[in-house]
Amino acid sequence: MPVITFANAKGGAGKTTAALILATELATQGHRVTILDADPQRWITSWHEVTGRLQNVQVISEVSMGSLQSHLRENRDQTDYFIVDLAGARDALVATAIGLSDHVFIPIQGCAMDAKGGAQILELLKQLKEKAGIAISHSVVLTRMSSVVTTRAMTAIKALLAERGVAVLDTPIAERVAFRDIFDCGGTLYTMDEGKVSNLDKARENARAFAAEVLRLVPARASRAGSLRGAFRTLRRAA
Ligand SMILES: Nc1ncnc2c1ncn2[C@@H]1O[C@H](COP(=O)(O)OP(=O)(O)OP(=O)(O)O)[C@@H](O)[C@H]1O
Ligand SMILES: [Mg+2]
């Protein structure tokens, strides 16, 4: 039951949207997903309230420093993937969640390339490795990409980050109405109305490609959750 966390110290980078797209896609494909909503804005909790019961999806709200580890421990038997949505901050909860993760995704808006908040998370990951000896795998996911961004521009962005040793997912998350509307409509991209939401098929295709890449990077069985307690102790010392 791997723990996947979305983090960017800057608000509005697209963390919650990417987390929900991944969670609903994995659930649709039959994986049991537990979303830990550690974002004080509680967007995923609100989405879940609108949605009602959804197969393979469990949402836990009010996640704090103190409760994070027990949520992971108590739900691991009924969870294939934990997905943690964090606030746009760089605080102790963010550091703890990152330290307990199997993989951290850092969403960065492709169009703006305002990577400052992302850089803060990369710095935090570096400190965890150097000071606490905890190496967490991570990658940048470009979000809100406009369809006019060319393959050449993408390649250039990836090369820039690769120079700094940062992996970037091949699949960017496009700017799509469906990815915004899902929060109001509730449900998944597959329960939304094709007649009402433009380019829903393209949004679904994007979500599938994104999830496929995540599944390759973070296979269901690989997890550090077994050593959670030790990692948590180390983190408390490092914080
Ligand atoms: N791929 C996308 N397509 C369309 N709209 C998007 C996309 N990603 C994000 N948005 C919109 O951008 C805004 C910010 O996105 P989101 O809430 O996902 O960011 P966040 O990083 O979770 O922000 P915060 O730090 O405030 O929690 C929202 O209005 C959301 O609907
Ligand atoms: Mg958010």
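^ magnesium ion complex. The pocket of adenosine-5'-triphosphate (ligand 1) is lined by residues 8, 11-17, 39, 41, 88, 143-144, 173, 175-176, 179-180 (CB under 6 Å). Strands lie at 3-6, 33-38, 57-60, 81-86, 103-109, 137-143.
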